[in-house]
Amino acid sequence: MHQKIWHKAETDNGDTDRYGDPIMTEKTLDYDARVRRESNVIQKPDGTTVDTNLEIDVPAEAQVKAGQDIEYVDIEGNEGAGRIEDIKESTNLSATKVYFKVLMVDGT
Fold first, then answer.
1. Cα–Cα distance measured from residue 9 to residue 18, given in angstroms and rounded to the nearest whole number
2. pLDDT score for 61
3. Where are the alpha helices (DSSP H) in the chain?
4. Are residues 7 and 69 in contact, defined by beta-carbon separation less than 8 angstroms?
5. pLDDT (0 to 100) of residue 26
6. What is the pTM of this model?
7. Which residue windows does the record flag with biased composition (Basic and acidic residues) (predicted)?
8. Distance of CA 31 to CAs 5, 6, 41, 56, Å?
């Protein structure tokens, strides 16, 4: 796959400051992905609806969450950015294993 997504995350580097709090560093996490244009309407629990225009498949171990800003490269090589509005997981029939995650993204 030539498509990718990436986002910035804060991670603990193992050091602490003089108060004993962990020192956080910013790190860029990237994953192979499949980016495709797909229109979806998502209804949130508070009753509002959000239109999304991207579906992005990422591996099951990808550390992503709803509301997170990401950047991506689509199949044509164009770079873009967007916000994850919803995440759906593709599982086996007994839901004991997650094969991949589908991110619903409102992107540009």
1. 23
2. 92
3. none
4. yes
5. 84
6. 0.81
7. 7-20
8. 6, 6, 25, 11
The span from the CA of 89 to the CA of 108, in Å, is: 23
Cβ proximity of 83 and 68 under 8 Å: yes
Count the neighbouring beta carbons within 10 Å of the beta carbon of residue 64. Answer: 17
With a cut of 70, list the residues of the chain below it in pLDDT: 1
Query: What is d(CA 5, CA 81) in angstroms, rounded to the nearest whole number?
Result: 9
The span from the CA of 81 to the CA of 8, in Å, is 12
- Residues 4-25, buried b or exposed e (16+ Cβ, 10 A)? bbebeeeeeeeeeeeeeeeeee
**Ramachandran bin of 45, using left for φ above 0, alpha for ψ from -120 to 50, beta for the remaining angles:** alpha
CA distance 5 to 73: 7
Instruction: Say what the pLDDT of residue 1 is.
Output: 57
